[in-house]
Amino acid sequence: MANPIGPTPIDLQALRRAPKVLLHDHLDGGLRPATVLELAAETGYGALPASTEPELAAWFRDAADSGSLVKYLETFDHTVGVMQTPEALSRVARECAEDLAADGVVYAEVRFAPEQHLQGGLSLDEVMEAVLAGFASGESAARSAGRPIVVRCLVTAMRHAARSREIAELTVRWRDRGAVGFDIAGAEAGFPPSRHLDAFEYMRDHSAPFTIHAGEAFGLPSIHEALAFCGCDRLGHGVRIVDDITGVEPGSSDVSGAQLGRVAARVRDARIPLELCPSSNIQTGAVASMAEHPFNLLAQLRFRVTVNTDNRLMSDTTMSAEMLRLVETFGYGWTDLQRFTINAMKSAFLPFDERLAIIDDVIKPGFAVLIG
């Protein structure tokens, strides 16, 4: 039902009521600070840089504000360090689903690298079992609380390691039990996606989708490789596609003079989704500021842009907070936010009929109330 008194003013409280879709969120980047402390105590992990919840939350945020992707990634040593038991993995996954649902997320693809959770003697399949059980438990709790959510897993291989084919096989082995796609992540410079062609070929051979972290720190060459050599279905971040657009400044509201290069034109023409993460892009130095973020330029040029959190702990953010920053910077309204949300749902690695059902039965009615 439409709002009889017109559009709801956009603020954080209203944004939390809006149905949201999240495609780029790291499980080990979204822990509650209190959970990190409790798991460290339970598992004997003694290397935490702070001993209270506020201090630890501030440390993660400040340490991530380095302007360097490599330094940003170092913060994960502590979250991964406390996620080495089945109980810890299930708890983190359950709380992830609950936290996203509480923020109004109705569909999420949460990614993590199973190969980083073997220090306690678990196998890759045992890690998957624990995480997916946690997601299912979180879905059930969210449904009971009146905030239903669908959570699926993107299985990630680390690009500096040599296990990507094995992780691709793991993805396919679990794809009917909650794993919907494959990804590679980690430092981009020196570790091009083309090093993992065997894994991507395996995914294509099994008609399984995958995304690739590209165009965050290393720029346009990594996007070109991800598309031309690897054949990815989505671009993780992809923010540096702006390097292939001339005639306009990244933060400009006038795109009339924009000229797209060959790579940018292919991304737009083929409707390849961009998993943009505004706050994180600034923290890692991929973008200088929110005002200079190319999100609005890409949106106006009708690229398939989506809004994402990347790492909620490190960026001290939520989906609602990310949307509010975009609204405050670029003046978006509810119809714009609905378009970005539908972009994301169209781009999800769910079967078509399931995507369509969420768009028609959840997203459109939810925004109709807010739009008025």
From TrEMBL:
This protein's record includes keyword Hydrolase: yes
Domain Adenosine deaminase: 19-364
Enzyme class name: hydrolase
Active-site residues per Swiss-Prot or TrEMBL entry: E216 (proton donor)
EC number, UniProt record: 3.5.4.4
Reported cofactor(s): Zn(2+)
Domain of life (superkingdom): Bacteria
Reactions catalysed according to its record: 2'-deoxyadenosine + H2O + H(+) = 2'-deoxyinosine + NH4(+); adenosine + H2O + H(+) = inosine + NH4(+)
GO CC terms, sorted: cytosol
Family: Belongs to the metallo-dependent hydrolases superfamily. Adenosine and AMP deaminases family. Adenosine deaminase subfamily.
Function of the molecule: Catalyzes the hydrolytic deamination of adenosine and 2-deoxyadenosine.
Name of the protein in its database record: Adenosine deaminase
Organism name: Tsukamurella conjunctivitidis
